Amino acid sequence: MQTSLPEGIRVLFVAGFGPVVADREKSDKLYRKVLALPLRHEDGYEGYWHSQCLEGVKHFALWPLDKAALSCFGEAVWPAHLPVPQAWLELDVEDIASATRILEQNGYALLTRLKEEPWGQTVTRFLSPEGILTAITHTPFLREAASAEETA
User: 86 Cβ partners below 8 Å, 6+ apart?
Assistant: First the structure.
């Protein structure tokens, strides 16, 4: 259901998103080595790796914690033994089975593994070193929309 927009600020797109890094070594391993994101750094900004080569956010949402817990664990309560995530990040990948295997081989504890969601998305979820609820995904409807835009 579409509601009328409030007056004031009109957000055009998500200009940036990224984790706040506490452990550079663990974050470097995940984002630069395992996920192989095309990140670079500038002189004088040690530890600040960035990219403007990734396509924009296809879906932005305020995801309630109870719904995230339900998606990951089948219950609407986040387990007390895990850090409560402060954000979520999904990265659509070319080959989700291979990417899932690579995450496992690199020691990431998977919360879901190749889970088929009712809306057609396949998802593998884990917590990043920063506590972000992170997923690698295969999302056919987003790929179809991008393909349609390219041919238009």
Answer: 131, 132
Residue 1 has pLDDT above 60, yes or no: no
For the chain, the average pLDDT equals 87
Write the pLDDT tens digit of every residue in 83-108.
999 999 999 999 999 999 999 999 99
SS3 20: coil
Report the C-alpha gap between 39 and 31 in whole angstroms: 8
Q: Which of 72, 91, 92 is nearest to 138 (CA)?
A: 92
Q: What are phi and psi of 17, to 5 degrees?
A: -155, 145
Do residues 117 and 106 lie in contact, with contact meaning Cβ atoms separated by under 8 Å?
A: no
Q: For residue 21, give the nearest of 52, 45, 57 by alpha carbon.
A: 45
For position 60, what pLDDT does the model report? 80
Q: Which structural domains are found in the chain, ordered by start?
A: 60-151 (3.30.720.110)
